[in-house]
User: Which sequence fits this backbone?
């Protein structure tokens, strides 16, 4: 056998490392979307076709705006990384199932354009795009955004009955000076399953926890954010409840009702807008929990998860800066301090 | 016994069960003068001169310098610049073999190392041209001579072989356990320590067992199996996993009382003392899907890569890269005329589809790199700083502590060329410090 000589091959020349884990943005986004499937199915189960319609419109809307912005700004297509699709799913889950079509489209546009594209695309956006859209809609269209449909099940038609979320009901009662014992609230099991009023994707705590566990198992999210977030909500609302049980709901309701589980596992953990260090993630999670509790207990809105996460998003660069791990071997010497300063 | 951070790449130890085969003698060898960290030696042979195997071709220039030796007997054909694995052509001695493979007349064993003084041992090791065979190629005698103010009480033998694909150290431990153990003994004597630890990843249990069985009764050498995790073989992480001592940032192992040597180096030290043989050959793992018959090969230093690959059946048509070393830190080759050096532990031939391109999409702040960095740096932010030319801020992020292990790039979701960034960042940071010093004085 005559082997080819050295000159017969064309070699790729690049710096080490020469191999890669194979995990990329697309595979991670795909896993997150997969993890959201139980929550989506629960939403469709409880809210019927209407919810499915919200999902389809939001995903199509986000992908369409993504394509449009890529074209407009002359950027390479980013559809393949699935981040726009994920934003669509998350946005849908944060909307009432009865949302009118235009609300969904406006939301998609805000998420992709104001939430991401104007900063330079994925990776540069400081705020979670789906949450930017949700808060924008909540402020601009408060009526439509709090038009909660009571779950009627997949079999009924389009006209669900309007009702309040558990947190909303409690807030209203407090506003009227009524004791909580006079307000009718769903029991814990219903909260866990999701048979309550609320956004399409936030109602079933159980389904969301399933997806969250999957993401933890796959190492895509780290425990620090959800544990810090939910843990601090439990502690703060628990203390408030112990002191004034008539006025404040218990920690179990606070955890299971509203968008806490969705927020803690799927929104606050958004990689781009949360810290990169483990300590930073814990600080971030606790910050989200404290802010959420404060808004829910004493603020003007019954729900505070979105505002809390967005506020903490803004603090992320600062948190990263102050939670840098101590470098290996940094026992006594600090290189930076040895370097001369001008 | 663990260090924090690191990664679990696919190991692909294709050649773990392949006994070392000896490559037949070639007609021609090219021995570069510069094969170690430090000053290259000065050439002491002339064109046309007859040389014996093991005859020095250069003499050391200064303390951090060793000789290179003729890999076989024959004639000096040419002294000129030849292709070098590090890229640019460099001075080298070309030798045409006479087919006799006769040892240089001065070659003679030095007897039992137990009867030799530490100073004598170090001289023998230096004259044998020994450098770290794990890849870093730092002259061995220099490592064995710590300054007085840095007391060393422990010798650590690196048998981790944490780079995927490579199995040369594995085979050395398995095939020559007694010689490795004796080599460790003489290194301990040269260094003046009573204790030695051998660190081996637990994917090489057989090597560990072989060494344990071969331990000379008079020596305190303990063999430890460590977690299989990259970069277990990084000196600082090996020391930490074995002793919980942290080498201070910017410091050397001797700052924590340790000297680290590779197990292959121990074997070569044994050969140098017992048989009087300078370093003229080593085990090289020739591997990867792009080489037809992967093998562990005993190769003479100075053998052109093309010849070694030919010996292993040649390359497949879809080869994409030929790498000296492993896939994590190895150096890519552009010219197969470049020769095997003392520090060449492997020749890795990857097909195009196995090679990752690091094209540098924006960082999505996934934090994978932070979890993976065994030095506890924040590669994501360091990468951004380099990308934005904010070199002055790199010091704050301890860029000089980066060991360029590539763990961060391996797990990066955006496949950012992080190691490339940090190589550049270090240069720019040093430039920045120099400028500041200039402006202060
Ligand atoms: S290459 Fe440098 S920054 Fe990256 S993981 Fe290794 S030590 Fe850390
Ligand atoms: S692994 Fe890559 S994408 Fe992830 S934070 Fe680090 S640099 Fe950014």
Assistant:
């Amino acid at each position: 056998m005559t082997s080819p000589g050295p000159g017969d091959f064309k070699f790729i020349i690049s710096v080490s490392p020469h191999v890669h884990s194979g995990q990329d943005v697309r595979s991670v986004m795909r896993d997150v979307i997969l993890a959201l499937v139980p929550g989506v199915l629960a939403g469709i189960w409880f809210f019927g076709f209407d919810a499915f319609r919200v999902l389809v419109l939001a995903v199509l809307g986000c992908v369409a705006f993504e394509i449009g912005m890529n074209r407009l700004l002359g950027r390479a297509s980013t559809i393949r990384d699935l981040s726009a699709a994920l934003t669509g799913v998350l946005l849908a889950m944060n909307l009432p199932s009865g949302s009118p079509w235009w609300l969904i489209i406006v939301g998609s546009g805000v998420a992709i354009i104001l939430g991401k594209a104007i900063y330079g695309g994925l990776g540069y956006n400081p705020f979670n795009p789906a949450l930017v859209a949700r808060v924008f809609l909540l402020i601009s269209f408060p009526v439509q955004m709090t038009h909660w449909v009571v779950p009627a099940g997949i079999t009924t038609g389009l006209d669900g009955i309007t009702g309040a979320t558990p947190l909303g009901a409690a807030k209203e009662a407090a506003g009227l000076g009524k004791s909580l014992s006079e307000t009718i609230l769903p029991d814990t099991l219903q909260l866990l399953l999701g048979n309550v009023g609320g956004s399409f994707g936030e109602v079933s705590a159980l389904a969301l926890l399933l997806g969250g566990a999957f993401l933890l198992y796959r190492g895509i999210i780290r425990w620090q954010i959800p544990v810090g977030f939910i843990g601090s909500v439990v502690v703060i609302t628990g203390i408030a409840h112990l002191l004034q049980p008539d006025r404040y709901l218990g920690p179990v309701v606070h955890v299971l009702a509203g968008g806490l589980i969705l927020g803690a596992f799927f929104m606050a953990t958004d990689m781009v807008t949360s810290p990169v260090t483990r300590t930073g993630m814990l600080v971030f999670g606790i910050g989200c929990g404290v802010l959420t509790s404060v808004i829910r207990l004493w603020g003007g809105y019954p729900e505070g998860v979105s505002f809390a996460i967005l506020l903490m998003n803004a603090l992320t660069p600062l948190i990263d800066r102050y939670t840098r791990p101590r470098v290996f071997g940094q026992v006594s010497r600090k290189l930076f301090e040895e370097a001369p300063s001008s | 016994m663990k260090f924090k951070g690191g990664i679990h790449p696919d190991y692909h130890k294709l050649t773990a069960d392949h006994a070392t085969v000896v490559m037949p003698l070639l007609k021609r060898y090219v021995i570069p003068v510069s094969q170690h960290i430090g000053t290259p030696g000065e050439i002491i042979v002339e064109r046309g001169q007859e040389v014996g195997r093991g005859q020095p071709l250069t003499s050391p220039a200064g303390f951090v310098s060793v000789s290179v030796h003729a890999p076989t007997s024959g004639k000096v054909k040419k002294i000129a610049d030849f292709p070098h694995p590090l890229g640019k052509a460099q001075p080298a001695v070309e030798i045409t073999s006479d087919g006799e493979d006769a040892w240089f007349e001065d070659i003679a064993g030095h007897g039992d190392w137990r009867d030799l003084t530490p100073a004598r041992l170090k001289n023998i090791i230096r004259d044998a041209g020994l450098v770290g065979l794990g890849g870093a190629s730092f002259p061995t005698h220099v490592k064995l001579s710590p300054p007085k103010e840095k007391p060393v009480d422990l010798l650590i033998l690196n048998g981790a072989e944490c780079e995927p694909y490579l199995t040369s150290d594995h085979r050395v431990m398995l095939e020559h356990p007694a010689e490795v153990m004796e080599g460790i003994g003489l290194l301990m004597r040269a260094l003046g320590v009573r204790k030695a630890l051998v660190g081996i990843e637990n994917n090489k249990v057989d090597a560990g067992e072989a060494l344990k069985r071969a331990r000379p009764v008079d020596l305190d050498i303990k063999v430890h199996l460590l977690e299989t995790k990259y970069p277990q073989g990084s000196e600082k992480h090996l020391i930490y996993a074995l002793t919980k001592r942290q080498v201070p940032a910017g410091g050397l192992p001797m700052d924590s009382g340790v000297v680290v040597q590779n197990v292959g180096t121990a074997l070569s030290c044994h050969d140098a003392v017992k048989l009087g043989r300078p370093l003229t050959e080593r085990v090289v793992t020739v591997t990867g899907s792009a080489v037809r018959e992967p093998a562990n090969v005993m190769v003479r230093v100075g053998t052109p890569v093309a010849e070694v690959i030919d010996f292993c059946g040649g390359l497949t048509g879809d080869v994409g890269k030929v790498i000296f070393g492993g896939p994590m830190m190895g150096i890519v080759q552009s010219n197969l005329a470049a020769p095997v050096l003392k520090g060449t532990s492997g020749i890795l031939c990857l097909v195009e589809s196995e090679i990752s391109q690091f094209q540098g999409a924006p960082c999505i702040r996934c934090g994978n790199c932070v979890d993976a960095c065994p030095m506890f740096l924040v590669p994501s932010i360091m990468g951004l700083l380099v990308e934005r030319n904010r070199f002055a801020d790199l010091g704050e992020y301890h860029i000089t502590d980066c060991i360029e292990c590539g763990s961060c790039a391996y797990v990066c979701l955006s496949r950012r060329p992080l190691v490339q960034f940090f190589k550049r960042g270090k240069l720019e940071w040093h430039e920045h410090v120099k400028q500041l010093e200039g402006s202060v004085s």
Chain B has a mean pLDDT of 93. The two ends of chain B are 47 Å apart (CA to CA). The first strand of chain B starts at residue 21 and ends at 22. Residues 319 and 351 of chain B are 4 Å apart (CA to CA).
